[in-house]
């Protein structure tokens, strides 16, 4: 997607109001392209389907970046150069570049391309255009829009990226630590809720509950941000995130409803397994904002 400003408007972009108008124009265009790429389906609907949509994520990133600029420009002081605000937003997006899933990479590419195009179209008051790597002119937007059905986005070294939300085809160390720390806590809570610690009297039930605690801990660990995502929790879309976290609460309720019953422990285990699978494959690739 090559983002361009409306003809005849760019030449006078020196005031925040004019830049805001341009941003709104570009944002509306990005939202329109996002709607077309998503096939008029909501992002949460796509995430539940589990089908990767890199093109949709690219345009979603463009729309999100431009929305951030619009809000920032609306709040800035009238005398402030709006290009400084745009550069600040771009710096934040650059800090998130290098995410190791195809969806996040497409999302970041879309945002950076939109911001680069905006900087190229907005002459600042100090006469310095853009925010290139060397402080000079911003690089032109690249046509990196993934085509539907295209292979996975390639990462550094031209290597295919085939990551799950769980962390690039591997379990990141921070999530391993979180899983290890949460498992005994959740095991204690689930055992207490489900009838108490009785490994001799109810060995099968105890084993099922221990596995439920482990999977529950892994599910909660997926909310930790991956490298390149800053400190923002890795939620995905809110309904999907709530459903996966809710599966842990559902497991506790199920165990408490039939204490020491292996059949109910199997149901609880299935519930948390569903939540973990959804986190790894569903909301991961299409609903990351």
Automatic annotation (TrEMBL):
TM stretches of this protein: 177-198, 204-224, 236-254, 260-277
Annotated region described as Disordered, given as residue ranges: 117-170
Keyword entries, A-Z: Membrane, Transmembrane, Transmembrane helix
Transmembrane among keywords: yes
Top-rank taxon, per record: Bacteria
Record's compositionally biased regions (Basic and acidic residues): 126-146
Protein name (database record): Uncharacterized protein
């Amino acid at each position: 997607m090559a983002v361009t400003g409306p003809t005849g408007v760019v030449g006078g972009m020196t005031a925040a109001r004019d830049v805001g108008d341009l941003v709104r124009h570009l944002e509306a265009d990005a939202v329109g392209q996002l709607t077309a790429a998503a096939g008029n389906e909501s992002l949460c609907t796509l995430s539940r389907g589990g089908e990767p949509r890199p093109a949709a994520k690219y345009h979603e990133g463009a729309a999100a970046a431009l929305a951030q600029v619009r809000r920032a420009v609306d709040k800035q002081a009238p005398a402030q150069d709006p290009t400084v605000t745009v550069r600040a937003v771009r710096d934040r997006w650059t800090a998130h570049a290098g995410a190791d899933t195809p969806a996040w990479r497409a999302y970041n590419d879309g945002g950076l391309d939109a911001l680069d195009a905006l900087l190229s179209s907005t002459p600042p008051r100090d006469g310095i255009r853009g925010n290139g790597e060397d402080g000079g002119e911003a690089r032109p937007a690249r046509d990196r829009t993934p085509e539907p059905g295209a292979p996975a986005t390639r990462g550094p070294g031209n290597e295919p990226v085939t990551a799950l939300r769980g962390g690039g085809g591997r379990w990141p160390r921070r999530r391993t630590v979180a899983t290890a720390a949460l498992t005994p806590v959740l095991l204690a809570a689930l055992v207490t809720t489900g009838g108490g610690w009785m490994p001799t009297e109810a060995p099968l039930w105890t084993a099922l509950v221990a596995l439920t605690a482990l999977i529950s801990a892994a599910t909660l660990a997926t909310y930790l941000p991956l490298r390149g995502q800053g400190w923002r929790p890795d939620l995905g879309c809110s309904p999907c995130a709530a459903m996966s976290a809710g599966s842990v609460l559902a497991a506790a309720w199920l165990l408490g409803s039939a204490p020491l019953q292996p059949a109910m422990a199997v149901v609880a285990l299935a519930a948390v397994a569903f939540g973990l699978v959804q986190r790894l494959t569903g909301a991961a690739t299409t609903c990351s904002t």
